[in-house]
Inverse folding.
C-alpha cells in the first residue's frame, strides 16, 4: 500500500522542535477550498515584460533556469506597442503556451489631471472621462484582433464595459480580464464585487496578511494574483518564505515574481532598454528562488499544467442589454 503524501514541511519547524521551541500548527480551517479548473492550486506570472525583447529575455532565462511560466504581463500599455510588436509577442507566447496579458489604455497617472500628482494620489490609475474609457476600449479591440486574450485593467468602469463587450460577443468569449495591483481590492466584499464586474483574476495589495487571504477565500473563488516580491511602489515586500502558506490560503493563486529595489520602467522605451532587460532576467531568477523554496519544503505539488489559463466558472452581475 502506498503511504499517504506527507504534508509540506514548515520552514525551520523540525530544527525548532528539537530544541523545544513551540511551532504553531497550521489550522485546516484556514485552507482555501478552491482550485483552478485543471485541479491546480497555483500558477506563475512574470510581470513587467514590456516588449518583444524583454519577452525573449524572459523566455531564454526561464529555459536556462527551468522556471515554468504560465503568464507574462506588461505594464506600459497596449498603446505603447506597435502591431508588429504585439504580433511578435503573441506568436512567441503561443509557441510556449504562455498567456500574454497586456495593459489597456489611458490611465489617470499619465493624464492631464493634477490630482494624481498630489500626496493623496487623486483617482490613481482610473480612466478620466469618456475619452479615456474609449481609449481603453480601443486598446482592447486592437489587442484582441491581434490575438491577445488577456487584458490588464485598472478601472472598475473599464472592467464592467469590457465584460459587457465580452458577454455580447464584441470581444472574444475566451478573453480574460485581470485587475491591476494598483486598484487591487483589500477586503472580501470588494474582491467579490470585482469578480461580479467581470474580473477573471485579481491582484491584491502585496501587504495583505495571511488571514486577509483566508477571509477573501470565504467570499470568492476568483483566481488571486499576488507579488511574492513586490516592486518598491507597491511596498517592496519580499514574501518568499510565505509562498507555501500563500498558496494554501489563497488558492487558486498566481505567484508573481516582482523585483524590489529597482527603478520603474513604465512607460517603457528604448532609453530604458538595458535596465529593463536586466530586471527581466532577475525576475525569472527570483522565480527560481521561490520554486526552490517550495520544493525544499515539500510544498511544490499542485502547480497547474503549463498552458492552463482559464479561471473556471465565476459569478457575474447580470449584464444589461443596450444602454
Amino acid at each position: 500500500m502506498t503511504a499517504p503524501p506527507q504534508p509540506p514541511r514548515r520552514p525551520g519547524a523540525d530544527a525548532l522542535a528539537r530544541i523545544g521551541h513551540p511551532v504553531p500548527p497550521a489550522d485546516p480551517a484556514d485552507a482555501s477550498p478552491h482550485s483552478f479548473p485543471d485541479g491546480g492550486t497555483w500558477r506563475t506570472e512574470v510581470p513587467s515584460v514590456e516588449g518583444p525583447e524583454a519577452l525573449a529575455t524572459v523566455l531564454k532565462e526561464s529555459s536556462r533556469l527551468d522556471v515554468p511560466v504560465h503568464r507574462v504581463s506588461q505594464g506600459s500599455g497596449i498603446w505603447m506597442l506597435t502591431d508588429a510588436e504585439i504580433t511578435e509577442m503573441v506568436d512567441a507566447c503561443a509557441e510556449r503556451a504562455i498567456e500574454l496579458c497586456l495593459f489597456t489604455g489611458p490611465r489617470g497617472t499619465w493624464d492631464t489631471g493634477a490630482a494624481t500628482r498630489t500626496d493623496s494620489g487623486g483617482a490613481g490609475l482610473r480612466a478620466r472621462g469618456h475619452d479615456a474609457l474609449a481609449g481603453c476600449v480601443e486598446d482592447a479591440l486592437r489587442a484582441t484582433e491581434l490575438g491577445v486574450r488577456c487584458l490588464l485593467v485598472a478601472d472598475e468602469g473599464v472592467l464592467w464595459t469590457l465584460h459587457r463587450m465580452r458577454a455580447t460577443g464584441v470581444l472574444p468569449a475566451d478573453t480574460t480580464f485581470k485587475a491591476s495591483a494598483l486598484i487591487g481590492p483589500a477586503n472580501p466584499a470588494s474582491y467579490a464585487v470585482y469578480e461580479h464586474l467581470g474580473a477573471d483574476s485579481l491582484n491584491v495589495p502585496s501587504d495583505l496578511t495571511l488571514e486577509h487571504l483566508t477571509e477573501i477565500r470565504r467570499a470568492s473563488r476568483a483566481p488571486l494574483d499576488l507579488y511574492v516580491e513586490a516592486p518598491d511602489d507597491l511596498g517592496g515586500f519580499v514574501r518568499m518564505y510565505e509562498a507555501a502558506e500563500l498558496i494554501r490560503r489563497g488558492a487558486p493563486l498566481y505567484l508573481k515574481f516582482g523585483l524590489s529595489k529597482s527603478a520603474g520602467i513604465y512607460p517603457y522605451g528604448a532609453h530604458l532598454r538595458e535596465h529593463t532587460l536586466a530586471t527581466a532576467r532577475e525576475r525569472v531568477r527570483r522565480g527560481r528562488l521561490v520554486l526552490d523554496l517550495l520544493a525544499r519544503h515539500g510544498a511544490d505539488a499542485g502547480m497547474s499544467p503549463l498552458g492552463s489559463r482559464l479561471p473556471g466558472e465565476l459569478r457575474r452581475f447580470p449584464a444589461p442589454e443596450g444602454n
In short: The mean pLDDT is 92. The chain has nine helices and eight strands. Strands lie at 42-46, 71-73, 99-103, 150-153, 176-179, 201-203, 224-229, 253-257. Residues 31 and 248 are 5 Å apart (CA to CA).
